[in-house]
């Protein structure tokens, strides 16, 4: 799933450089991948964390600027809404009239199901895990939730306002270039360059985080415990860097199709992570009876469910929902069939709960 998710970042970079520099897509893809791999390869967690702060700041302002600037150019909110009137009744409707009964229920469930994915994204969770003082977690949560609300609201606004602003509608995979094209026509070249840098920042921050977590998982959670328990720090760094290169090559191969939909790729990987790790994270925090075997069962069942459901697309339901559900059920069942956790684990659980209550 990390390979799939990283490939979405590389597709984004390819489309960015292809649009603004006019380079062939594959050449643009290689340049974008090289930029991300280069600083992840050399800098590790510190480089990714520091650059993420700068990238996040740039993204914050540009995602707000584009829809606001376009609305002003169109004459304000009223003229913008008037120009969108011809898009049909369903354009602003949460419940399209064209859908009814079970189809509408599935659409609502699939849309809401995206929220379940947040609990299981390793590249997001690792930021909380790396915090220096647990007492800062409340502040971190407030910042994270505020950022998510603003970025998602204004990202949707970009799509809506872009429909009215652009004279020629963008079709198929080209629709995902709306932000880049609007930036070029709304601002002088210098400001446009800054905005495009923010797009690249969004790509880099996500892709580098994914590469870093994957490399750490292979080196620390796979290689060290199962192949070489006494591995030196230098050896683990080499394994991490080799992993970054291998994952990048696989991601470049998956991203090589210029007609790839970034949204579809992200949706698949998001479901995989959410189903594998979401129930595990939630139950480990709120259910003291969960065991290691239950955890393994949840990760395996969640991941396999997403892989199978995606291929057959049963009922049109987003694969994250059944994956999350079956993962949760398997964790509970296997944990109850297993021996109770040791007193040491229970004491640790109680310690974390008391720390949480203090906040």
Write the layout of secondary structure elements.
Layout: H1 2-21, H2 25-73, H3 77-83, H4 102-113, H5 122-129, H6 137-165, H7 178-186, H8 189-226, H9 233-254, H10 262-286, H11 292-312, H12 320-337, H13 343-358
Q: How far apart are the termini? A: 34 Å
Total strands: 0
Protein structure class: mainly alpha
Percent of sequence in beta strands = under 5%
The biggest sheet amounts to: none
Low-confidence blocks of residues:
none
**Rg for CA atoms:** 22 Å
User: Count of helical segments?
Assistant: 13
What is the 3D form?
Answer: globular
Fraction in helix: over 70%
List the secondary-structure elements in sequence, H or E. Answer: HHHHHHHHHHHHH
Give average pLDDT, whole number.
85
Task: Report a brief summary of the structure.
The chain is an all-alpha fold and 359 residues long. It has helices at 2-21, 25-73, 77-83, 102-113, 122-129, 137-165, 178-186, 189-226, 233-254, 262-286, 292-312, 320-337, 343-358.
């Amino acid at each position: 799933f990390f390979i799939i998710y990283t490939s979405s970042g590389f597709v984004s970079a390819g489309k960015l450089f292809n649009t603004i520099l006019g380079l062939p897509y594959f050449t643009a893809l290689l340049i974008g991948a090289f930029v991300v791999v280069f600083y992840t390869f050399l800098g590790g967690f510190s480089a990714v964390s520091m650059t993420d702060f700068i990238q996040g700041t740039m993204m914050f302002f540009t995602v707000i600027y584009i829809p606001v600037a376009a609305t002003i150019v169109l004459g304000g909110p009223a003229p913008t809404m008037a120009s969108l009137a011809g898009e049909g009744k369903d354009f602003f409707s949460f419940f399209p009239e064209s859908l009814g009964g079970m189809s509408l229920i599935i659409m609502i469930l699939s849309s809401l199901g995206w929220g379940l994915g947040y609990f299981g994204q390793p590249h997001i969770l690792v930021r909380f895990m790396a915090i220096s003082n647990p007492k800062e977690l409340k502040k971190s949560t407030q910042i994270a939730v505020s950022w998510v609300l603003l970025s998602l609201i204004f990202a949707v606004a970009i799509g809506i306002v872009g429909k009215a602003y652009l004279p020629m509608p963008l079709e198929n995979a080209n629709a995902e270039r709306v932000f880049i094209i609007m930036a070029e026509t709304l601002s002088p070249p210098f400001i446009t360059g800054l905005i495009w840098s923010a797009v690249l920042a969004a790509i880099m921050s996500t892709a580098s985080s994914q590469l870093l977590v994957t490399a750490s998982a292979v080196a620390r959670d796979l290689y060290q415990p199962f192949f070489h328990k006494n591995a030196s720090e230098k050896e683990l760094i080499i394994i991490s860097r080799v992993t970054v290169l291998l994952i990048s090559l696989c991601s470049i191969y998956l991203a090589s199709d210029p007609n790839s939909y970034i949204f579809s790729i992200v949706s698949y990987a998001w479901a995989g992570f959410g189903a594998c790790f979401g129930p595990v994270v939630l139950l480990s925090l709120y259910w003291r009876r969960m065991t290691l075997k239950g955890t393994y069962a949840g990760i395996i069942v969640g991941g396999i469910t997403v892989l199978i459901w995606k291929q057959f697309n049963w009922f049109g339901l987003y694969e994250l929902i059944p994956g999350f559900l079956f993962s949760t059920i398997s964790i509970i069942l296997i944990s109850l069939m297993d021996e109770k956790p040791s007193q040491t684990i229970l004491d640790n659980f109680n310690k974390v709960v008391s720390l949480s209550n203090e906040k």
